[in-house]
Design a protein that fits this description.
This protein is mostly helical and 477 residues long. It is 64% helix and 5% strand.
Length: 477
């Protein structure tokens, strides 16, 4: 994970500066607390006072290292650093990632606890003894410990975020002035928030919220590459979702070629910018060929997810365009082949992400889409064997996600309903071609049970709605 890292210090700023040099060389972007001339421009002297600058820096960093030293041989540590400790601890606990706070005691022993305003023993991290070493040598030991701790950082469960998408909405509202997470973490959460718009059919409302947030970023001059990519991606994807709502009268979705290619080029452009940032991973690869490995994901989880999720969205974009009956056969075949290419690359990347617990169910939800779209493209191209294998893979994934949500009472009813429909609509397809009459009977019973339960709920809802109408009429006529 490539993060902005805040480095707080209480006595020797040179150790913090040496630590910044070492970790910057490892791909992190470090910020030495205060007005340090070599800090990144985006977090340098952002406010009128030193305290305001430090608050801004803490708000917009993804991890923090606090270097505790006694001010001199007989006096306790700086009160400012105690404040920073409390502020950062509260911020990271809010997103359940306390492992992002790294504390180092330099030449402080347990016997020195009396010098501190409270008993902080429960949260102290590593002890460092300077022993006459240079600032560079001390910083190297701290850096080694920090790098070792990276494997312990808790990443948010993506499916849990999908289920609680209003949490992301709440953070969007407060992030500019009073953030509870870093820009990098919010960018990651925005990817899930965009997908929630599709699952909950809230694309118009969520698009307005993201557009408002992007305007606030511009107004406040928030410079975050990750947030810029995330908001640009979000607006393009939400435009796509808004455009693919079926016509109210005909039920038809028709996307003009100029609109289709415009959105496709926007996705490609974001992909190219990511490739330019990481040439050692992607080289000059086209967006349809951008594949990453586990090492890249561990260092850059936001970028990995942005690539994989956009690639899957391109398969949906192509699928929608192919619904246009006015497309010539030659063009339809061309884009079906492009769809297969994007399906294969997105499936490879999503399957890698699905190997990790924090991604598993969310990645499988997206894989279900990708395999289903793959079957459609292969059908256009007459690739019958791949049609069957892709449908089988999609059905298996959707059944797994459906089984998962069925057993969890905390899943939002609307999300549970959406996932049930995705699975059962594919179960209908399977039942139609199933040669085993007993297996077919099982599918039909499962579908029938759902329809009966849903019909009962709809009747109750309809009864209440009719009662409301009748009561309203009685009062107004």
């Amino acid at each position: 994970m490539k993060d902005y890292v805040f480095i707080g210090w209480s006595r020797n700023r040179e150790v913090a500066i040496e630590l910044k040099k070492i970790l910057d060389g490892q791909g992190f972007v470090c910020v030495v607390g205060g007005q340090y001339e070599n800090n990144p421009e985006s977090v340098r002297n952002r406010r009128g006072t030193v305290n305001e600058t430090i608050n801004f820096q803490m708000n917009h960093c993804d991890q923090s290292i606090l270097l505790f030293q006694k001010i001199d041989d007989n006096v306790g540590i700086s009160g400012n650093l105690i404040y920073e400790l409390g502020y950062i601890n509260a911020q990271y606990n809010y997103i359940q990632s306390p492992t992002k706070l790294h504390i180092f005691r330099i030449d402080i022993t347990r016997a020195d606890d009396a010098l501190f305003p409270t008993d902080l023993g429960g949260i102290w991290g590593s002890s460092i003894t300077s022993g006459g070493r240079s600032e560079r040598e001390i910083a190297q030991e701290i850096a080694q410990e920090f790098l070792k701790n990276q494997a312990q950082i808790a990443r948010s469960d993506k499916f849990r975020l999908l289920n609680n998408h209003y949490f992301i909405e709440y953070e969007l509202k407060r992030h500019i002035e009073n953030p509870a997470m870093s820009d990098y973490d919010l960018a990651m959460n925005l990817l899930v928030y965009v997908q929630s718009a599709f699952c909950y059919q809230e694309q118009n409302d969520i698009r307005l919220k993201v557009e408002r947030f992007k305007s606030q970023m511009v107004d406040k001059a928030i410079r975050s590459t990750e947030l810029e990519w995330a908001t640009n991606y979000a607006i393009q994807t939400l435009d796509l979702y808004c455009l693919t709502v079926p016509d109210e009268d005909s039920g038809v979705i028709r996307m003009p070629g100029v609109t289709f290619r415009g959105i496709l080029n926007e996705f490609r452009e974001i992909g190219e910018r990511i490739a330019q940032k990481f040439p050692e991973v992607f080289g000059g690869a086209d967006f349809s060929e951008m594949k990453f490995d586990e090492a890249f994901y561990h260092r850059n989880d936001f970028e990995a997810w942005l690539v994989a999720q956009m690639q899957e969205h391109v398969t949906y974009l192509i699928l929608v365009y192919l619904l246009n009956s006015e497309i010539a056969a030659e063009e339809k075949e061309y884009y079906a082949r492009l769809g297969v290419k994007y399906c294969r690359i997105s499936i490879g990347n999503l399957e890698l992400l699905a190997k990790f617990d924090e991604n598993k169910m969310y990645a499988k939800l997206l894989l279900g889409y990708a395999y289903k779209n793959m079957s459609t493209f292969c059908a256009v191209l007459g690739m019958d064997a791949e049609v069957a294998s892709s449908r089988e893979a999609s059905f298996r994934l959707r059944r797994e996600v459906y089984s998962y949500v069925k057993g969890i009472s905390a899943i939002q009813p609307s999300l549970k309903e959406y996932i049930a429909l995705e699975y059962l609509l594919q179960a209908v397809e399977r039942a139609a071609v199933c040669g085993d009459k007993y297996e077919r009977s099982d599918y039909l019973r499962e579908i029938g049970d759902y329809i009966r339960e849903r019909s009962k709920s709809e009747r109750n809802r309809s009864y209440m709605f009719r009662s409301l109408i009748e009561s309203y009429k009685a009062l107004t006529e």
